[in-house]
Structures are given as structure tokens and as C-alpha cells.
């Protein structure tokens, strides 16, 4: 008999402005440090997915988004190189500098920097989970499998 699956549920935010998306370069966490990823995190116990993505936006990039601004655009079932899998619910929001202000690196102990990148030309050091989420969003795919043999 196999063990019961444990697939954490993540929320990832594609903050878009024109043809750009906001990424954060991880640092000091011991996991994927030096790689670029979307503002993201785990859904906490008792928390719904929309509340989780709004919380992560505030915690990581200092933005207060309304519930109506974050729309789910795709899901990613990602398996990392060690074989551990997770499910990511990917939300997109359009950045409005007049309403939101500019994003900031609100977690410098976990993030070296934030920067805008063209959605069709992400940096080479983009974490595969993030790259899969952005690619699926751009293609309008409702589900992306990342890190799985097909």
C-alpha cells in the first residue's frame, strides 16, 4: 500500500503591467536561492485561496489588492527534482501604479530583489514552477504539468 499523498497547495501571483511580470529573486531561504519566482506561498490552515494570494501580495511586495482584482488564471501541478509535488493556484492581477503604488521588497530576509521582466523573456534563472505558471497563463492553458514525465 502506498503512502497518502501530501500535495501542499500554493498560491502564485502574476502581477502584470503591460507585457511585464514582477518576479522576486530568492535569497537566504535555503531553497531555490538565486532563482527568480513569482510572489507566492502556501495556503494556511483555515484560509481560502483568494485570501492567501492577497496576504502573500501584502507580505512579499507590499501591495494591497482587492478580492476582485485577483483572478485565477491557471493551475500548475509541479514536481521538483527530488520528486516532491505540489499544486499551485495561479492568480493574475493588473498592476495600477496610481492605485497600488510601486511594489517593494517587503521580505528582504527571503528576497534579494524584485524586478519587472517581459513575460515572453523570463530570466534564465527563473524557477521552473514560476516559468510553468507564466507560460500557462500566456497560453491560456487551464492546467500545466511541470516536472512530470509525459
Automatic annotation (TrEMBL):
Pfam families noted in UniProt: NUDIX
Alphabetically ordered keywords of this record: Hydrolase
Any one Gene Ontology molecular-function term assigned to this protein's record: hydrolase activity
Requisite cofactors: Mg(2+)
Top-level taxon of origin: Bacteria
PROSITE patterns: NUDIX, NUDIX_BOX
Record-annotated Nudix hydrolase domain positions: 5-139
Family: Belongs to the Nudix hydrolase family.
Protein name: Nudix hydrolase domain-containing protein
Biological source species: Dactylosporangium matsuzakiense
